[in-house]
Design goal:
Elements (H helix, E strand, L loop, with lengths): L2 H9 L12 E3 L8 E5 L9 E5 L7 E9 L5 E11 L4 H4 E8 L10 E2 L2 E5 L2 E9 L6 E9 L5 E11 L7 E8 L8 H15 L6 E3 L23 H13 L2 E10 L2 E9 L5 E6 L5 H5 L10 E3 L4 E4 L8 H9 L4 E5 L5 H11 L2 E5 L6 E3 L5 E4 L5 E8 L5 E2 L3 E2 H8 L16
Parallel strand pairs: 12-13, 13-14, 18-19, 19-20
Antiparallel strand pairs: 1-4, 2-3, 3-11, 4-10, 5-9, 5-11, 6-7, 6-10, 8-9, 12-23, 14-15, 15-16, 17-18, 20-21, 21-22, 24-25
C-alpha cells in the first residue's frame, strides 16, 4: 500500500483507540505528536492494530500509552509485536517502554526499555522484563515511534503479565595467568597451559580462558611461522582439556588459510569439538608488518549457559568490537590479550554492560562485572582468576537505571562517523 493511500485511509478512520482497551495517544508536545489511529486493515492476530505515522514531521516522538496497576517488587513482562514501514533506523525509532509510576503519579525508579527483538515474518516482537520498583503502584505501557517522519509502525499482540523472578544463571569462569619460557615447539607451550588449566579449574567450571598467541609465546618463532590449520594440532590438545575439565575453552593461536595467517581465538565446547573461531579484526602496525591478515566479522556464540563474544588484544583499543558483540547479544566477552590499556578494558565492560574476562601476559588476568569492577584477579604467574558470575543479575545504576537495554535502544548507529569524502575539512 502506498503512503498516499495510507493517508487517505487514516483520514477515514477514528483517531482514538477503543476506550475499553485503555490505550490513548500521547506525545510530549503537540507539535511533535505523531498521527495515531486504530487500523482495521493491518493486524497480526486481532481485529486491528494500533498504528502510528510520522506524519512527515522530522521531530516526531510519541504514540500510544496505557496505564496498568502493578504490585511493588513483582516481575512483569511486556510483549508487543510491531510491523515497521519506511524506517531508516528501526532499533532507535520503534520503542516499547515500561514507565513506572508512584501512587501520586510521579515517576518511580527508571523506565525500562524493551531491547530484545525477534522476527516473525512481517512482524517483530519486543520484550521487556523487569521488577516493579518498591514505590511503584502503576506502570505506563508506552508504544512509540521516534524521529521517523516517513515511518509507520503497527502494534498488535500486546500483552502485559506477571512472571516469576528469573532464577540465578551462575557461570564459573577461569582465566589463566601463565607465560611459558624456553619452549622449543608450540606444542610445549600449549601443554603448559593445558596442564595449568587442569590443575586450577574447579569442578563444574563452565569456561576456561587462555591468552593470545599460546602457540608462539615462549618459543623462538614468529607468529606467521607457527600458523596452523583450524581444526589442527592445537585445537586437538585444547579439546582434550575441554573433555577432561568438562568446560568450554577459549584460546588464541595463529591460523593459516592458504597464504593468509590470522590471529585467531578458538572456542572449544565441553565435548572437545571446535565450536567457533574469531579472527582478530584490529591488527596493530606490528602485526601487519609481521604478515598477518585481519578478520572481518564479530561473531557471537551460543553456549549451554549463555551467549559469548571474543575480542583479541588490540581490539580493546577501539569501541566497536565490544559494541558489536553486545548488540549481537553477547553477555560475556572473553579477551585473550598480550598487553594493553586496562582502563579501556573496564570501559568496554561498563559501556556495553557485559562481563569481561581477560587472560594476558603484560595485562592483568582478571574478570570484570558489567560496571567495570574487578571481581577476580590472578596477579601471580601459574595461577588463575576464578569467579562465578550470574548472567541473570540486573546491574541498576543509581542515576541511570538498567543501562543494558537502554544502551541497546538509544545507541545511534545510523549517524555517519566518516565524512562523505576523504577531505576531512569539507
Amino acid at each position: 500500500m502506498t503512503n498516499y493511500a495510507l493517508w487517505l485511509l487514516w483520514a477515514a478512520i477514528a483517531f482514538a483507540a477503543d476506550p475499553a482497551a485503555g490505550w490513548k495517544p500521547w506525545a510530549p508536545r503537540p507539535e511533535i505528536a505523531p498521527r495515531t489511529c486504530l487500523d482495521p486493515l493491518v493486524a497480526r492476530a486481532s481485529a486491528g492494530s494500533l498504528a502510528i505515522s510520522g506524519n512527515s514531521n522530522s521531530a516526531v516522538y510519541g504514540g500510544w500509552e496505557r496505564s496498568v496497576p502493578v504490585e511493588p517488587g513483582t516481575w512483569y513482562r511486556l510483549s508487543a509485536y510491531y510491523r515497521p514501514e519506511n524506517l531508516t533506523y528501526e532499533r532507535g525509532q520503534v520503542l516499547a517502554i515500561l514507565d513506572w509510576q508512584t501512587a501520586v503519579g510521579t515517576r518511580s525508579g527508571f523506565p525500562e526499555f524493551a531491547a530484545r527483538a525477534k522476527g516473525d515474518g512481517l512482524w517483530r516482537r519486543l520484550v521487556a522484563e523487569a521488577p516493579a520498583p518498591p514505590d511503584a503502584r502503576s506502570v505506563k505501557l508506552q508504544l512509540f515511534l521516534s524521529n521517523a517522519p516517513q515511518g509507520i509502525v503497527w502494534w498488535d499482540g500486546i500483552s502485559f503479565e506477571v512472571i516469576p523472578a528469573p532464577a540465578p544463571r551462575p557461570v564459573t569462569v577461569v582465566s589463566l595467568n601463565l607465560r611459558p619460557e624456553g619452549s622449543q615447539t608450540s606444542a610445549q607451550s600449549v601443554e603448559q597451559f593445558a596442564q595449568l588449566a587442569e590443575k586450577v579449574a574447579p569442578q563444574k567450571t563452565d569456561i576456561i580462558v587462555l591468552p593470545e598467541g599460546i602457540t608462539v609465546v615462549g618459543t623462538p618463532f614468529r607468529p606467521a611461522e607457527v600458523g596452523e590449520a583450524v581444526p589442527g594440532p592445537t585445537t586437538a590438545r585444547l579439546g582434550e582439556l575441554a573433555r577432561k575439565t568438562g568446560a568450554y575453552v577459549v584460546a588464541g593461536l595463529y591460523e593459516r588459510v592458504g597464504s593468509a595467517v590470522y590471529n585467531t581465538a578458538v572456542l572449544i565446547d565441553r565435548r572437545g569439538q571446535l565450536a567457533g573461531r574469531y579472527r582478530k579484526v584490529y591488527l596493530p602496525r606490528e602485526e601487519f608488518e609481521g604478515g598477518l591478515t585481519p578478520g572481518m566479522d564479530y561473531p557471537v556464540f551460543d553456549t549451554d549457559f549463555g551467549r559469548i563474544g571474543i575480542m583479541i588484544c588490540w581490539d580493546v583499543q577501539y569501541a566497536d568490537p565490544a559494541r558489536a558483540l553486545a548488540l549481537r547479544g553477547a553477555e560475556l566477552i572473553l579477551l585473550p590479550i598480550w598487553g594493553g590499556n586496562t582502563t579501556l578494558a573496564k570501559a568496554r565492560a561498563l559501556e556495553n554492560q557485559v562481563f569481561l574476562a581477560a587472560s594476558g601476559y603484560d595485562f592483568p588476568t582478571e574478570i570484570l562485572d558489567p560496571l567495570g569492577a574487578v571481581i577476580a584477579e590472578a596477579p601471580q604467574r601459574g595461577t588463575a582468576a576464578i569467579a562465578t558470575i550470574d548472567l541473570n543479575r540486573r546491574y541498576v545504576q543509581d542515576w541511570l537505571g538498567n543501562m543494558r537495554p537502554r544502551f541497546q535502544q538509544e545507541i545511534r548507529l545510523e549517524v555517519p562517523v566518516l565524512p562523505r569524502t576523504n577531505d576531512e575539512n569539507e
